[in-house]
Predict the structure.
Amino acid sequence: MKTFATTTLVAMGLALAAAPSFAADAGAGEKTFKKCKSCHMIQNGDDTIFRGGKTGPNLYGIIGRTAGTVDGFRYGDDLVAAGEKGLVWTEENLAEYVADPKEFLRTYLDDGKAKSKMSYKLRKGGDDVAAYLASVAQ
């Protein structure tokens, strides 16, 4: 019986260690988001979709939003197609998207020709930025 309990505990520990974790730092994400401010804003309000000459959509409330659906913003066709296919932004998939938007869409849509209007790749800190974006719209 003792061997079974030990084996079970070891197996549970290994399973937890192998499980993906999403330990992100919203404070660090706020700092990293400064790189995103040239194209994006985070403002609550219907009239702030892309005021101020921003080239990217307002990211307020992005977590939980269907991709490509802010009224009045002109998204690329492939991001709209991803939304129509069911892509809803989570912290995890947003972090993956910002690391390589084109590759994310190609994988999600299973289309080697898919592209994104967002050409910037946030190589580090995407998980933190996603946590920050989730925290500002609560």
Observations:
- Residues 63 and 89 are 5 Å apart (CA to CA).
- DSSP finds six helices and no strands in the chain.
- Residues 2-18 form the longest helix (17 residues).
